Amino acid sequence: MGDPKGFLTTARQNWPRRPVEERVRDWDEVYVPGALLPIVGKQAGRCMDCGVPFCHEACPLGNLIPEWNDLVSRDDWRAASDRLHATNNFPEFTGRLCPAPCEAGCVLAINQPAVTIKNVEVAIADRAWSEGFAPPRPPDRLSGRTVAVIGSGPTGLAAAQQLTRAGHTVAVYEKDDRLGGLMRYGIPGFKMEKHHLERRIEQMRAEGTKFRTSTAVGRDVGAAELRSRYDAVVLAVGATAWRELPLPGRELTGVHQAMEYLPLANRVCQGDLEASPMSAAGKHVVIVGGGDTGADCLGTAVREGAVSVTQLDIYAQPGAERDEDVDPWPTYPKIYRLSAAHEEARDLESAPAADADARLFAASTLHFSGDTDGHVRALHLVEVDAERRPMPGSGRTLPADLVLLALGFSGPGQEDGLINQLGLALDPRGTIARDADFATNVPGVYAAGDAARGQSLIVWAIAEGRAVAAAVDRRLTGATQLPAPIGPFDRPMTV
């Protein structure tokens, strides 16, 4: 421990965000540049170096959190980077995008604010890049074995990097024109700027990983043909089959899925488009769904200049403190959290129909109505109780020129024919079935990430990529030294 009394003498201090009025005028990350390093050493010193660190159990990557906290508190950034990268291929991604279940499992969080683990993590990752602590690590020799990885999200990239470093020749196939999956076209730049992604991809190129973009396996190249060309295939195609809301008025123009809307905004930022054809500018926007994707839509609509933006959450507003009967420590609690997007909507009063921060809780959509041209103009909702039963007399109507459905995903998409061409078995949830070694029913084909697990957090995605790489390496060589942080049937801690 750098400071045995740090958790007693130092208060929790988060990475400060830029003023709302400033950040909503651009697509840059919301945090004040350079403001983290002056505070992160003392924040790392709040770590108690617990004998049984439950932050390890809460994080599927098995991050060595007390170790790199101690090293940061001692200003040993190179060693901290080594310990962080020992368990996580992309800590600058997780440090920005993960909701930090590790902090919920922090022992200090039993009765005090947790250590700012996520901030320490991203500080180490950024320092590693600026100081040259993250050079390419090409293998000393090649194995002569080849692997195709389908999908370039966090699972696919982690699997590819691990297998490349183990000496295999790896090609990553991506159906989009750029690499990164949802990190590229689903996550807005104000949450993670794309240069972080580009930097890791260039590192992987230097290590020897090959990339094939604009190639949809099953459509542009036959899945069976691809299987015949490689010693192993890893399916990391994500869970892209979005959930629908089959209500009256769903067919109206202006009712879209979140993942139809967000990629267009990202393409504007990439310079592909001057303006999004689904832009929220000058529109009343309603987002159906209370999760992170809905919050991403919220922040995007605010930046595009929406007249109003309201987010509907079918669940009741959670409390500010952990309910020990429902979500006891060290599980990840359902509490009221104020994301950057919600803070912006609150301060700008972007949702006059909502209580405070653009969200309407315990709200269930009934139907949509439109004008004579078939364009949506209103969303009709009702308040519900804890059992999702409508409350009599609670019906409301919100103006809506653009409705975005952010209801999550049910499994991998099947429009490209990949699943049918390979003859893959699916489990009852619609995800790809696999055994204890991540192997599918097709010999030599493995499945990892959201395509097989179901939609989850980025830390689980990277952990899946690392674990499937170990399974493939073992199958190709008879043994492996690659770490496997999780098994395919492991799940987050629950009561």
From TrEMBL:
Pfam families: Fer4_20 (PF14691), Pyr_redox_2 (PF07992). GO terms for molecular function: iron-sulfur cluster binding; metal ion binding; oxidoreductase activity, acting on the CH-NH2 group of donors, NAD or NADP as acceptor. GO terms for biological process: glutamate biosynthetic process. InterPro entries: 4Fe4S_Fe-S-bd, DPD_II, FAD/NAD-bd_sf, FAD/NAD-binding_dom, Glut_synth_ssu1, Glutamate_Synthase, Helical_ferredxn. The keyword Oxidoreductase applies. Residues 38-69 form the 4Fe-4S ferredoxin-type domain. The keyword Oxidoreductase applies. Keywords: Amino-acid biosynthesis, Glutamate biosynthesis, Iron, Iron-sulfur, Metal-binding, Oxidoreductase. Pathway: Amino-acid biosynthesis. PROSITE patterns: 4FE4S_FER_2 (PS51379). PANTHER family: GLUTAMATE SYNTHASE [NADPH] SMALL CHAIN (PTHR43100:SF1). This is Oxidoreductase. It comes from Streptomyces lacrimifluminis. The lineage of its organism: Bacteria, Bacillati, Actinomycetota, Actinomycetes, Kitasatosporales.
